[in-house]
Amino acid sequence: MPVFHYRASDPAGSIIQGTLEAREERQVVLHLQQGGLIPLRISTEEAQSGGWQWRWPRGRRRRVPLSQVVHFTQELGALLKAGLPLERSLQALLEVTSGSAFKSILNQVLRDLQAGKSLSEALSRHKAFSPLYISLVQAGETGGFLEVSLTRLGEYLKTVSEFRSYLATALIYPMILATVGSMSLILMLIYVVPRFEAFFKEMGQSLYWSTSLLLGVSNAFRAYWWVGVLLAALGVMISIRVLRTPAGRMAVDRSKMRAPLFGDLTKRISAAFFAKTLGTLLNNGVPLVAALKVVTTAVPNRYMAKALEGVQSEVEKGQPLSALLKKVGMLPELFLQMVAIGEETGHLGEMLLAAADSLEGDARAAVQRLLALLEPFLILAMSLVVAFVIVSLLMPILNLYEIQF
Q1: Which of 3, 13, 152, 388 is most exposed by smallest CB count within 10 Å?
Q2: Is residue 129 a contact partner of residue 106, using CB atoms and an 8 Å limit?
Q3: Which helix or strand (DSSP H or E) is residue 119 part of?
Q4: What topology is assigned to 66-170 in CATH?
Q5: Which residues of the chain are modeled with pLDDT < 70?
Q6: Cα angle vertex 154, ends 151, 156, to 5°?
């Protein structure tokens, strides 16, 4: 279903911008008019980013941060638990929401509720809320425990957000280390090595192979640095373009699963997201088949998500989930055993959440082990490069004064 970006005006004259999923533009117009808005401009996402044109992202296409969704979910669950009506709760949250993009979304959700739509239906019109989010809200509305469902959903989103932040933060120090080392090497090639080159020419003696190599690299870098910049920019543009295609993202995710050292970590992280999402859905009353339709969207690795899509149809035929997951061949053995135990005992949801906690702990430990290996490796590599540069520059000078090692 295409995504339409619209710009509309309310009766007070305020401009409202947002996105809406619909089959055709006429449905967007009707939806805006039902909410008391006057459509000003409506365009599809494809029309704004077509072909190979390079466009800077526009302000109205800003994505809503996950942290805002987490805070909204937790606060809405708390207000409903305190006995406040849904519309009044949304109005209260609307008053304290700071982000303009998310505030626009809440305005639309509130108008949809006032027009007679359910909360899950109102939220489903916005990309800020995932299919998992919508399914849990819908299950809470159907079962009459919306506040409980929102509270569990807020806890789930907070845990996922913290885990993703941990993985991203763990890579900051190695990236800084590699960047500083690379910049130091570039500065030496640009400013330090050329000064020694003039001195070596005055000496008039033959140079060691390492010194000649270093001088050649320095001259090539200073003469053709623009070629490297162009190649790097071209590589970045091609990578971005490839990652925007489904086939490109699938190929990258497949390589992550098969990469040495990182492949096992990728499997554990994907399995942890799968287990936590499916367990949360099952504990909130969503049937297994319906939950499996949603759970693949929460798996960060698209290659594994594609492999898990066939599980749903087989579960509908009565096949046990643990046996089907084993056939996928990408999930840790301990996780499969815990799923089998959960099916046997009738506590699949609780067992999945326990498996998710175990996998998350294993993933954190694996990240720490990789960092423990990566940081000394980077330091050693930079030390060897710097030592090569220093020795290559000093050996001709020492040879000039006939210093023996």
Answers
A1: 13
A2: no
A3: helix 119-123
A4: Receptor-associated Protein (1.20.81)
A5: 1, 7, 9-15, 38-41, 44-62, 204-205, 297-298, 400-405
A6: 110
